[in-house]
Amino acid sequence: MSRESLLQARGLRVHRGGALVLDVPALDLRAGEVLALMGPNGAGKSTLLLTLAGLLPHSAGELRFQDGKLDSRTERNDFRRRMTMVFQDPLLFDVTVAENIASGLKLRGVPAAERHPQVVTWARRLGIGDLLNRSALHLSGGEAQRTALARAFVLRPEILFLDEPFSSLDAQAREELIGELGHILAETGTTAVISTHDQGKAVRLAHRLAVMQEGRIIQMGGLREVMNHPESPFVAAYVGMETLLKGQVVTCEGGLIALRLRGSRAPEIQALGEAQPGQTVLVGVRPEHVALSLQTDNSSSVRNAFPGAVTKVIPRGPFFKVELDCGFHLAAYVTAQSLSELDLQPGRQVVASFKATSVHLIRKEGLDSQL
Amino acid sequence: MDLIWEGLRKALELLLRMDPEVLRITLLSLQVSGLATLLSVLLGLGLAVLVALNEFPGKRLVIALMNTGMGLPPVVVGLFVTVLLWRNGPFGFLGILYTPAAIILAQCVIATPIIAGLGLAALQHLPPGLRLQILALGATRTQLVWLLLKEARLPLLAAVMAGFGGVISEVGASIMVGGNLKGSTRVLTTATVMETSRGNFDVAFALSFILLVLAFSVNALLTHLQQRSQRR
């Protein structure tokens, strides 16, 4: 499906205090897509969002919205009335919830009579319909961020920028709001760019994912592609590929690699990919792709099965992360049910298995120095 | 103590029989300081907005100067304004020395840095992202400034009160540039100084009480506005 490019950036650079803080050679935002920017604090996510939103002038490069450039102040000012942005801090005004939701419409010159029904609609949509006359200063964190989202959606923005909109909320409010935001984005078909510093649920709203480091996009692609095929150890660690293994290729036939882990008594691991025998490669396994059982199941198509001992069990949201020593370090996610059925606790002997298709080749050779 | 009671009694008496001279002095004080405060609000808040919203080299120095200006001694201001407005001075052609206009000008010089300094602090105290949020909602530059001032209204009203308090109570500048001329530039503070030096303590106390009531009334009004907006 080819979709129209709504916002285009070419050679975008931003300098701050003489230092280059953003360097994005090319970025295309397609109409209707949700793009997530992910990376640690200081990676340049907010700078990129603000620059794309026309709120921060770029020092070099070109920004185009549909067919018009966004170079001059006037062009950026016009663009500001067609998009909007929600920040980590709700940044509400010291007036009522209703007046807050209406504020953008008011600034854009929408008459009061037209504002009211839209305000009510979006307040209800975000579950704050009965708070309309409440002062915005007396809201919980979740209610305040809902007000900020209603204030944004009521403008029917052509692009919605969200800068870590859930970071200041507690876990429960965050989960709820992410779910609702996902529904609203899907129903309205709003084009959105959302930044997040962790691989939490917010990322799941995205169609595409861009991982950032030191002002640059180091990998960008479809959500699954980036999650499953990180191109570097940094991205792998960042997208939650918790097990990274380095080994030497023994054989490679028909797209199936057998590799022996370095410095380990573990047997060979089967992975999907192309490499030369003798090459050193780095492979990764996502914890949700590792299954645990009490004995080896010979009938399945699973190529990799290793006996090992549980070393640690850590609660992770609805799951538990189980760390294992199989002669190499391995992490697996299990449900609470599996945890009790298998009686998983440190010292417990289990068999960890994962398909060859779950082992992703991250990098070949030349990686010794970088690990 | 007797002197104070006598002053209070005298003040009531002067007020109750609507002494024309006292009434004129009181009204002039209110007019001069009110107008000076109003002009200072325009100038001071304008300056505060400019400094708050723009990045420029030497910004820290400008802020330091504004803060220093908050403590300008009225007599020093009076001296400078007198010299500038003196017949042979650079602004002598205006011919406003020893008129209420000169007092307004001098009081403006006193109140503007107070309102600018406190106003800037009020604007800088707003959440740092608020400016970007307002722009992201589609505000023009004018709308942005108006919304920021509205958000900072409580501390801004405090700045206005401080500015008014500074000028209604000063005597040094008023006496130097106004000359305490009867029926023309005599205000409550200069009249109080004069009556005290003449030994008319009862009148001096009466004028002081009127000054206090005046300052209290104006500030009570501003406080009412301030606190009303807080309760919303």
Condensed summary:
The complex is a heterodimer of chains A (371) and B (232). Chain A is α+β, with helices and mostly antiparallel strands and 371 residues long.
C-alpha-based Rg of chain B, rounded:
20 Å
Strand content of chain A: 35-45%
Number of helices of chain B: 11
Question: How large is the share of residues in beta strands of chain B?
Answer: under 5%
Structural class of chain B: mainly alpha
Provide mean pLDDT of chain A, rounded. 89
Please report the total strand number of chain A as a whole number. Answer: 20
- Major β-sheet annotation of chain A: 6 strands, mixed
Topology:
The complex is a heterodimer of chains A (371) and B (232).
Chain A: E1 5-16, E2 19-30, E3 34-38, H1 45-52, E4 60-65, E5 68-69, H2 73-80, E6 83-86, H3 97-107, H4 112-125, H5 141-153, E7 159-163, H6 171-188, E8 191-196, E9 208-213, E10 216-222, H7 223-228, H8 233-238, E11 243-253, E12 256-261, E13 269-272, E14 280-285, E15 291-293, E16 304-316, E17 319-325, E18 329-335, H9 336-341, E19 349-354, E20 359-364
Parallel strand pairs in A: 3-8, 3-9, 6-7, 7-8
Antiparallel strand pairs in A: 1-2, 1-4, 4-5, 9-10, 11-12, 11-14, 12-13, 14-20, 15-19, 16-17, 16-19, 17-18
Helix pairs in contact in A: 3-4, 3-5, 4-5
Chain B: H1 2-16, H2 20-53, H3 59-69, H4 74-85, H5 100-124, H6 130-136, H7 141-151, H8 153-168, H9 172-178, H10 188-197, H11 201-230
Structure description:
The complex is a heterodimer of chains A (371) and B (232). Chain A is α+β, with helices and mostly antiparallel strands. In chain A, a hairpin with a 2-residue loop joins strand 1 (5-16) and strand 2 (19-30). Chain A has two domains: 5-236, 3-Layer(aba) Sandwich (Rossmann fold), CATH 3.40.50.300; 243-370, OB fold (Dihydrolipoamide Acetyltransferase, E2P) (Beta Barrel). The two termini of chain A are 39 Å apart. Residues 367-371 of chain A have low confidence and may be disordered. Chain A has helices spanning 45-52, 73-80, 97-107, 112-125, 141-153, 171-188, 223-228, 233-238, 336-341; strands at residues 5-16, 19-30, 34-38, 60-65, 68-69, 83-86, 159-163, 191-196, 208-213, 216-222, 243-253, 256-261, 269-272, 280-285, 291-293, 304-316, 319-325, 329-335, 349-354, 359-364. Chain A is built from nine helices and 20 strands. Chain B is mostly helical and 232 residues long. Chain B has a single domain (2-230), classed as Orthogonal Bundle (MetI-like fold). The A-B interface holds A 50, 53, 55, 77, 80-81, 83-85, 87, 89, 91, 93-96, 103-104, 107-108, 135, 151, 155, 161 and B 127, 129-130, 132-140, 143, 147, 150-151, 232.
